[in-house]
Design a protein that fits this description.
Number of helices: 4
Structural class: mainly alpha
Helix content: 40-55%
Radius of gyration: 12 Å
Number of strands: 0
Strand content: under 5%
Number of domains: 1
């Protein structure tokens, strides 16, 4: 893949706390990766939920129903 022209801008807003993530700032790859695992990317979760690394659809739905998103 070519270098993402928006990587620097995206990186500044990326809240992924996974230390060795190689997709930080490359949103299209991050979204594709997480959707393939039936997950959502870190950027849709509040910080405390994101740090749990439970990015499942079910966890997101639970957070929405609890008004935490």
């Amino acid at each position: 893949m070519k270098e993402c022209p928006n990587k620097k801008i995206n990186f500044d807003y990326c809240n992924c706390s996974y230390p060795s993530c190689n997709k930080k700032g490359i949103c299209c790859e991050c979204i594709r990766y997480h959707l393939s695992l039936r997950q959502l990317p870190a950027c849709v979760f509040p910080p405390e939920a994101e740090r749990s690394y439970d990015r499942s659809f079910e966890n997101f739905a639970h957070l929405v129903m609890s008004n935490k998103v």
